[in-house]
Structures are given as structure tokens and as C-alpha cells.
Specification:
The protein is mainly β and about 600 residues long. The protein has three domains: about 40-355, Glycosyl hydrolase domain, family 43 (Tachylectin-2, Chain A); about 365-510, Galactose-binding domain-like (Jelly Rolls), CATH 2.60.120.260; about 520-590. It has five helices and 35 strands. It has helices spanning about 1-20, 20-30, 115-120, 180-185, 590, and strands at about 45, 60-70, 70-80, 90-100, 105-115, 130-135, 140-145, 155-165, 200, 210-215, 215-225, 230-235, 245-250, 255-260, 275-285, 290-295, 310, 315-320, 335-340, 340-345, 345, 370-375, 400-405, 415-435, 445-450, 460, 475-490, 495, 500, 505-510, 520-525, 535-540, 545-550, 565-570, 580-585. The strands form nine sheets. Strands 22, 23, 24, 25, 26, 27 and 30 form a seven-stranded antiparallel sheet that branches. Strands 1-5-4-3-2 form a five-stranded antiparallel sheet. A five-stranded mixed sheet has the order 31-35-34-33-32. The protein starts with a helix and ends with a helix.
Length: about 600
């Protein structure tokens, strides 16, 4: 009965996960041949752009692409952390497939490989960044960093390998043990880097290499033709400037390229160690030494990026992950893909794209378009730009906050943060969220909001109640005023002769809505881009007509290459009701005179 009980328990888990019917459950429990629990059926979906899945229904991280048979396969780990969970929870791997990334048409395979089900020696508690490679035998091999059941090793993360006759599985364990463990890399040492982030590269001569790396060290070893055993010595690679993790190697025109997660706290690309950029290096050998070349992408929203580069149908693509999906976070990431362009042997900086570009998200929040300043910012790791980055937060890391931490012996009682705009704006409310930690950061003892009047003097809003609760969104209505500057001042909680620090995750300032959004008519000559004004006058109930800055969508040269007409959308800052429209008429040179 103990055995039967365990089977039934396992089957109940399958019901919850896969939706198996009661009849199928009975057949599984009784051992009916030919019936096994299957992963969810693949589903097709259309993506409007990055992140590929952006509605928050399914989070994906650590993208690893494979071009095979005219299709592009992107393998990834599924992020399953709760909204406020400050750690990774990855238990399974998924897969997205498309013929053409520009089409937006994808097929999602959920739970495509579940380590706890495929590997008898794995705990099933970890499913970190893996990759699939095609072997010389035509089969597909998935290299995955998972947790070993062996508790005697200093670090239980190992690299396993699964195999399938198809790039979409099903997957099985060809060797019944890990491919690479801590002991293989470090022997009986008790210190070293985790054995994670594997990548397999097959050279043009058929030699196969297994790369991995984390915590500032990258390594490589040859793989046997079987794809399931290593050969020769492990090489620690050199020349990878500010390497953090995730090596990915490819070859183009005889040169070896390696893209990786680049980190250097205090740099222009990674102001703190909690941020990441994508760098690349080149070499004449797949083993290095490598020569750093450039940063090709920075400023993404996630603390990690896990880059990879693949050629598919004559075009090159970069995959990475961000926290830009709905409800996303550093531990709820989503895969993105953008095209790579070249200048000879040089990888040009990659242009990050979004389905919903941040510059054109309709919002009443004027803060995202303000120039932000502060009396003091702890930097690094906190950032002034966190105040108005417009990003929803889940589990926080220091770059997601502005803070004035000066140490636990801080004698500064107050600090301020300020927003400024190029032209006067009319505001009627504010929103803010305070944060506290387990050390010295506390909610403010009190705070005050002021605006600068037309004489340049600071005037306090007549507000009696300024809430100070932490980790919840606070909104404060304000009497409508017209101003170019708003300032919030915080008093730290006293602690003897010292004062606690304050931290803010986001600060919003709300615009009064215009009475209506006007339409603009513009005429331009063939071959000449239209002149779209940087501000437009809109009508407000209390303030009359006021100039409002407008951010226009890009106009492509083909739009004004011949006579005709087209419409351009613009976002008037602080106006959430809709877009400003410019009706552009393109006329011949003679008509334009």
C-alpha cells in the first residue's frame, strides 16, 4: 500500500499540473500500458514585440536559441517566483518556436523538460540557464544546470544532458548521471564558482566545445563526439573583461565571437553590481585568449541579461531577458529578441525594442518626463533614475530605489528630491512608495511637498495628511497648480543623535487632463521630413491654453518620399486620454512653394 499511495500522490500532482482526467488517473495508478502524463499541449500565439510574452501570463528567462530546419527554437527556464519573492524559482524548461521572428507568430511548449522527471539523480529544485545543440548524429542534446541529489559536494549545481530525436522532445537521460560536477572542475577543493550556464559550440571542423561560467570566471572543455562525455583538460579562459556569467560562442568569417553578461559596478553601463550589460570579445581560437571589443547593449531593466547570438535564415539575432512584462521583476523575467547588425567584423550596438515603447505609454504621470535631481543619492548601488523610470516593481534590488543612505551614523536630518519640466505644467496629485530594509532605512518621520511659483519661490501644498507607510502605493490629491518644479523633502526618523535613511521606489506627479486633444495639420515637400512641433497648446479648465511637450513617433523616409498623406501620433506628456495626431500632407516641390 505504501507504493500504491506514492503512485496516487504522484498522479494527483499530474492532475493539478496537466489536467489529466479521472479515468486516465485510474489507468496510471493501475499501470495501464501506454498512458503517461503528458506536458501541456503546445499553443500558438502572436507577439506584438518585446518581451515576446508580455502579458504576465508566463515568465521566461535565460534564452538559448537554435536555428534548425528553417525554424528558430528558443529554449528557456520558466521563472515561477511569487510577486514579492526575492529569489529565483525555476523548476522546468520551456520552448518557443517561430519560422521568422519578425512575423510575431510563435508556438509555446510549456514544461518541455522537467529535470525532476527526466533525471533520476536530480532534485528537481533548480532549472537554471541551459542550451540545446544538434549533434553529428542528428539528435538534439539539451545541456542543463540542475541540482544534484548528492549532498556531499560543496556545491550541488551540476550540468546534465538530455537527448531527443526532435528539437521539441520528448527528452531522456542518455547517461544516467551528471555530465559535469563540482568534483570534475575543482576536485576536492571547497571553494570555487558554481557549475552553471552551459553553452555548446560546434566548430566548422566538427570539434565540439562545452563552455560554462559564473561569478567572474569562464571555462571550456572539449566534448566527445557522443556529446555525452568530456575530453581533455578544462581550460580557464582569459581576456574576458568584466565577465560575470553566461558565455556564448559563435563563429563568423573565421573569427570566434563570445558574448556574455558584463558587470563592473560604478561604470557607465553598470552603475551598480546589480545591473548588467552585454559585451562581446573575439579570438582566433575557440579556447581564447579573448580580446574585449565593446558593449552592445546596456540599460536593460533586469539585473541579469543572459545574452546569446544566432544566425537564422541569413539574419542575426540577439536574445536576452528583461523584467518588462506585466508584473515582471528581477525574478520574473521575460525573453526578448532583437536583430544584430554588422559593420564588417564589428557587432554594432543593438537597438532594444518594445512592443509598447516606454516613450509612448499613455500616462497621467508627469514624473517620467521630468528632469530629476536630489540633494543626495547613495550611488552606487541606488540610482536617482529609479524615481521616475515608470517601471512597476515586485521584489526590489538597490538600483530600483532612490535612497540617501550615508551610513548608520548619519547626522543629516533632511534630504529632498525634485522634478523639473521645460515648460510649466498643471498638476493635481502625487503618488509615492517608500521602502525600508532590515538595517538603517526606515519610512520618513514626516515629509512635505512644495512647488515653485512664478516668482521662483517654494510654496508648500496645504496638505494635512502625508502618509508614511512603507511598501504600499500612497496617493495624495493636490489642489491644481501650475509650476515648472516640484520638490519633496523628507525628514529621517531620529535615532539618538543620528537620523535614519529614507528610500523611495517610485515618485509620480499627476497632470490635470486637458479639455480635449487637438489635431495638427502639417504640409511638407517630397523628400523633406515634416516639422513636428515640440509643444502644442492645449486647453485646461482652470489654466486656459498652455503649451504641452509632445513626443512624436518616428517618421520613416518612405512616408514622405512621394506625394500623399499620412498620420503621425504624438504623446502629450501627462495626458492619458489618447494621442495627439498630426495629419501630414506631402506635396510636390512646386506645390510646396
Amino acid at each position: 500500500m505504501i507504493i500504491r499511495s506514492r503512485i496516487v500522490s504522484s498522479a494527483h500532482r499530474s492532475i493539478r499540473r496537466y489536467g489529466i482526467s479521472g479515468v486516465a488517473l485510474l489507468c496510471i495508478c493501475l499501470g495501464t500500458p501506454g498512458l503517461i502524463a503528458q506536458p501541456p499541449m503546445p499553443r500558438s500565439f502572436h507577439s506584438q514585440g518585446n518581451p515576446i510574452i508580455r502579458d504576465g501570463s508566463y515568465y521566461s528567462a535565460d534564452a538559448a536559441p537554435l536555428s534548425a530546419g528553417g525554424k528558430l527554437y528558443i529554449y528557456f527556464g520558466r521563472d515561477q517566483a511569487d510577486r514579492w519573492q526575492g529569489s529565483f524559482r525555476l523548476l522546468e524548461y520551456g520552448l518557443m518556436v517561430t519560422e521568422d521572428p519578425t512575423s510575431g507568430d510563435w508556438t509555446l511548449y510549456q514544461a518541455n523538460l522537467v529535470p525532476g522527471e527526466v533525471f533520476a539523480w536530480a532534485t528537481g529544485h533548480r532549472a537554471y540557464a541551459g542550451q540545446v545543440a544538434k549533434g553529428a548524429d542528428g539528435r538534439f542534446y539539451w545541456y542543463v544546470p540542475v541540482e544534484w541529489k548528492n549532498t556531499e559536494v560543496p556545491n550541488r549545481m551540476v550540468i546534465g544532458v538530455a537527448v531527443s530525436d526532435s528539437p521539441v522532445g520528448p527528452w531522456s537521460d542518455p547517461i544516467g548521471k551528471p555530465l559535469l560536477t563540482w568534483w570534475d572542475v575543482f576536485g576536492d577543493q571547497t571553494t570555487g564558482q558554481e557549475v552553471i550556464d552551459p553553452h555548446v559550440f560546434t566548430d566548422t571542423d566538427g570539434t565540439v566545445y562545452l563552455y560554462w561560467g559564473s561569478w567572474f570566471v569562464a571555462r571550456v572543455v572539449k566534448l566527445a563526439p557522443s556529446m555525452t562525455a568530456t575530453e581533455g583538460p578544462i581550460v580557464r579562459m582569459s581576456g574576458l573583461d568584466a565577465f560575470f556569467e553566461a558565455p556564448w560562442v559563435f563563429k563568423r568569417d573565421g573569427t570566434y565571437y563570445l558574448v556574455y553578461d558584463w558587470k563592473r559596478g560604478g561604470s557607465q553601463w553598470t552603475p551598480s553590481n546589480y545591473q548588467a550589460a552585454i559585451a562581446y570579445a573575439t579570438s582566433s581560437s575557440p579556447l581564447g585568449p579573448w580580446q574585449f571589443q565593446d558593449i552592445i547593449l546596456s540599460g536593460t531593466s533586469s539585473t541579469t541579461v543572459h545574452p546569446s547570438v544566432v544566425e537564422h535564415n541569413g539574419r542575426w539575432w540577439l536574445t536576452y531577458h528583461t523584467k518588462d512584462a506585466e508584473g515582471g521583476g528581477h525574478f520574473r523575467r521575460s525573453v526578448a529578441i532583437d536583430e544584430v547588425h554588422w559593420d564588417g567584423a564589428t557587432i554594432l550596438p543593438v537597438k532594444q525594442t518594445w512592443a509598447d515603447h516606454p516613450a509612448f505609454r499613455l500616462t497621467k504621470n508627469l514624473g517620467v518626463d521630468a528632469k530629476v535631481s536630489a540633494s543626495f543619492t547613495e550611488q552606487p548601488p541606488m540610482t536617482l533614475g529609479a524615481l521616475n523610470d515608470g517601471r512597476p516593481e515586485t521584489a526590489l534590488l538597490p538600483p530600483d530605489l532612490w535612497g540617501n543612505y550615508r551610513g548608520n551614523t548619519n547626522t543629516q536630518e533632511t534630504d529632498w528630491i525634485q522634478y523639473a519640466w521645460e515648460v510649466p505644467v498643471q498638476i493635481n496629485g502625487t503618488g509615492i512608495q517608500f521602502h525600508r530594509d532590515g538595517n538603517w532605512i526606515r519610512p520618513p518621520h514626516k515629509w512635505r511637498l512644495e512647488y515653485q511659483d512664478d516668482r521662483g519661490e517654494w510654496v508648500a501644498f496645504p496638505i494635512e495628511d502625508y502618509p508614511t507607510e512603507v511598501n504600499r502605493w500612497i496617493e495624495v490629491p493636490l489642489p491644481p497648480v501650475t509650476t515648472q518644479r516640484v520638490r519633496a523633502t523628507f525628514w529621517g526618523q531620529p535615532a539618538g543623535e543620528y537620523f535614519h535613511s529614507v528610500a523611495v521606489t517610485e515618485w509620480e506627479v499627476y497632470a490635470v487632463p486637458a479639455e480635449h486633444l487637438d489635431t495638427l495639420s502639417v504640409k511638407t515637400a517630397v523628400g523633406h521630413p515634416p516639422h513636428l512641433p515640440s509643444t502644442m497648446e492645449l486647453s485646461f479648465a482652470d489654466a486656459g491654453r498652455m503649451p504641452v511637450p509632445v513626443i512624436w513617433r518616428d517618421v520613416e523616409p518612405q512616408q514622405y518620399a512621394a506625394p500623399g498623406a499620412f498620420t503621425v501620433e504624438g504623446r502629450a506628456i501627462g495626458q492619458a486620454a489618447g494621442f495627439i495626431e498630426a495629419q501630414v500632407v506631402v506635396v510636390g516641390a512646386d506645390a510646396a512653394k
